[in-house]
Design goal:
- There is one protein chain.
- By secondary structure, the protein is an alpha+beta fold.
- It folds into two domains: about 90 residues, OB fold (Dihydrolipoamide Acetyltransferase, E2P) (Beta Barrel); about 30 residues, no CATH class.
- Helix content is about 20%, strand content about 35%.
- It contains two helices and five strands.
- Strand 4 and strand 5 form a beta hairpin.
- It is elongated.
Protein backbone atom coordinates (compact mmCIF):
# COMPACT_ATOMS: atom_id res chain seq x y z
CA UNK A 1 0.00 0.00 0.00
CA UNK A 2 1.33 3.43 -0.93
CA UNK A 3 1.58 5.85 1.98
CA UNK A 4 1.64 9.66 2.02
CA UNK A 5 5.12 11.04 1.36
CA UNK A 6 7.69 11.22 -1.40
CA UNK A 7 8.45 7.96 -3.19
CA UNK A 8 10.88 6.87 -5.89
CA UNK A 9 8.64 5.87 -8.79
CA UNK A 10 8.69 5.03 -12.48
CA UNK A 11 5.91 5.45 -15.01
CA UNK A 12 4.61 2.22 -16.52
CA UNK A 13 2.02 3.73 -18.88
CA UNK A 14 0.32 6.95 -19.93
CA UNK A 15 -2.91 7.75 -21.73
CA UNK A 16 -4.83 10.86 -22.73
CA UNK A 17 -8.33 11.17 -21.28
CA UNK A 18 -11.11 13.67 -20.76
CA UNK A 19 -12.00 14.50 -17.19
CA UNK A 20 -15.38 13.19 -16.06
CA UNK A 21 -16.34 16.43 -14.33
CA UNK A 22 -15.53 19.05 -16.99
CA UNK A 23 -14.62 17.11 -20.11
CA UNK A 24 -11.21 18.79 -20.28
CA UNK A 25 -8.07 17.07 -21.52
CA UNK A 26 -5.92 15.28 -18.98
CA UNK A 27 -3.20 12.67 -18.98
CA UNK A 28 -3.26 9.69 -16.66
CA UNK A 29 0.16 8.26 -15.85
CA UNK A 30 0.37 5.02 -13.92
CA UNK A 31 3.44 4.82 -11.69
CA UNK A 32 5.02 1.83 -10.02
CA UNK A 33 6.02 2.47 -6.42
CA UNK A 34 7.62 -0.67 -5.02
CA UNK A 35 5.13 -3.48 -5.63
CA UNK A 36 2.15 -1.12 -6.01
CA UNK A 37 0.85 1.22 -8.67
CA UNK A 38 -0.83 4.59 -8.41
CA UNK A 39 -2.26 6.95 -11.02
CA UNK A 40 -1.24 10.59 -11.35
CA UNK A 41 -3.38 12.98 -13.37
CA UNK A 42 -1.87 15.90 -15.23
CA UNK A 43 -4.12 18.65 -16.51
CA UNK A 44 -3.85 20.92 -19.53
CA UNK A 45 -5.52 24.06 -18.24
CA UNK A 46 -4.02 27.50 -18.75
CA UNK A 47 -2.30 27.43 -15.36
CA UNK A 48 -1.34 23.75 -15.29
CA UNK A 49 -0.24 22.68 -18.76
CA UNK A 50 3.41 23.77 -18.39
CA UNK A 51 3.85 21.83 -15.14
CA UNK A 52 2.11 18.79 -16.66
CA UNK A 53 4.42 18.80 -19.69
CA UNK A 54 7.48 19.23 -17.44
CA UNK A 55 6.32 16.27 -15.32
CA UNK A 56 5.92 14.07 -18.39
CA UNK A 57 9.39 15.01 -19.63
CA UNK A 58 10.90 14.23 -16.20
CA UNK A 59 9.58 10.70 -16.71
CA UNK A 60 11.54 10.51 -19.98
CA UNK A 61 8.81 11.36 -22.51
CA UNK A 62 10.32 12.74 -25.72
CA UNK A 63 7.58 15.36 -26.08
CA UNK A 64 6.37 14.16 -29.47
CA UNK A 65 3.58 11.61 -29.37
CA UNK A 66 0.49 11.94 -27.17
CA UNK A 67 -0.62 8.41 -28.05
CA UNK A 68 2.41 6.24 -27.34
CA UNK A 69 4.23 8.65 -24.98
CA UNK A 70 7.61 7.38 -26.19
CA UNK A 71 10.18 7.27 -23.38
CA UNK A 72 7.65 7.79 -20.55
CA UNK A 73 8.96 4.70 -18.72
CA UNK A 74 12.62 5.72 -18.98
CA UNK A 75 13.34 7.70 -15.78
CA UNK A 76 12.82 7.40 -12.06
CA UNK A 77 11.08 10.39 -10.47
CA UNK A 78 10.06 11.51 -7.01
CA UNK A 79 6.32 11.07 -6.73
CA UNK A 80 4.71 13.10 -3.95
CA UNK A 81 1.61 11.41 -2.54
CA UNK A 82 -0.83 12.99 -0.11
CA UNK A 83 -3.81 11.70 1.82
CA UNK A 84 -7.18 13.24 0.98
CA UNK A 85 -10.80 12.59 1.72
CA UNK A 86 -13.02 11.75 -1.24
CA UNK A 87 -16.70 10.86 -0.93
CA UNK A 88 -16.26 10.37 2.80
CA UNK A 89 -13.30 7.99 2.49
CA UNK A 90 -9.60 8.67 2.94
CA UNK A 91 -7.27 7.73 0.12
CA UNK A 92 -3.73 8.45 -1.02
CA UNK A 93 -3.42 10.48 -4.20
CA UNK A 94 -0.36 11.12 -6.39
CA UNK A 95 -0.02 14.90 -6.45
CA UNK A 96 3.36 15.92 -7.88
CA UNK A 97 5.99 14.46 -10.17
CA UNK A 98 9.39 15.90 -9.22
CA UNK A 99 12.97 15.64 -10.39
CA UNK A 100 14.79 13.16 -8.12
CA UNK A 101 18.05 15.10 -8.60
CA UNK A 102 16.67 18.47 -7.51
CA UNK A 103 17.57 19.51 -4.00
CA UNK A 104 15.15 21.59 -2.01
CA UNK A 105 17.72 23.08 0.36
CA UNK A 106 20.53 25.46 -0.36
CA UNK A 107 24.25 24.95 -0.56
CA UNK A 108 26.28 24.42 2.62
CA UNK A 109 27.80 27.51 4.20
CA UNK A 110 31.56 27.85 4.62
CA UNK A 111 32.86 27.92 8.19
CA UNK A 112 33.62 31.64 7.91
CA UNK A 113 30.06 32.31 6.71
CA UNK A 114 28.61 30.38 9.64
CA UNK A 115 30.83 32.30 12.06
CA UNK A 116 29.77 35.66 10.57
CA UNK A 117 26.12 34.66 10.68
CA UNK A 118 26.44 33.49 14.29
CA UNK A 119 28.01 36.82 15.28
CA UNK A 120 25.11 38.74 13.71
CA UNK A 121 22.53 36.52 15.39
CA UNK A 122 24.22 36.74 18.82
CA UNK A 123 23.92 40.53 18.62
CA UNK A 124 20.22 40.23 17.70
CA UNK A 125 19.57 37.74 20.52
CA UNK A 126 21.31 40.08 23.00
CA UNK A 127 19.20 43.01 21.77
CA UNK A 128 16.02 40.95 22.03
CA UNK A 129 16.86 39.83 25.55
CA UNK A 130 17.65 43.42 26.56
CA UNK A 131 14.32 44.64 25.19
CA UNK A 132 12.51 41.96 27.22
CA UNK A 133 14.54 42.66 30.35
CA UNK A 134 16.09 39.19 30.31
CA UNK A 135 19.71 38.35 30.84
CA UNK A 136 19.57 34.65 29.98
CA UNK A 137 17.27 32.01 28.60
CA UNK A 138 14.69 32.30 25.89
CA UNK A 139 12.32 35.23 25.53
CA UNK A 140 8.85 34.72 26.97
CA UNK A 141 5.97 33.54 24.85
CA UNK A 142 3.92 36.70 25.14
CA UNK A 143 4.63 37.85 21.61
CA UNK A 144 1.54 38.78 19.59
CA UNK A 145 1.78 36.59 16.50
CA UNK A 146 1.47 32.95 15.45
CA UNK A 147 -0.01 30.63 18.04
CA UNK A 148 0.18 33.36 20.69
CA UNK A 149 -1.77 35.99 18.74
CA UNK A 150 -4.62 37.38 20.78
CA UNK A 151 -7.95 35.94 19.65
CA UNK A 152 -10.86 38.30 19.11
Amino acid sequence: MITPGTHKARAVSAAMEKSQSKGTEQVRVTFRVGDDTIDWYGYFGENSEKRTLESLMLCGWDGQDFVTFNGITQNDVNLVCEEEEYEGKKRVRACWVNDPNRTVGGKPMEATEVASFADRMRAKVAALKASKGQSSGMPGTSFDFGANKARI
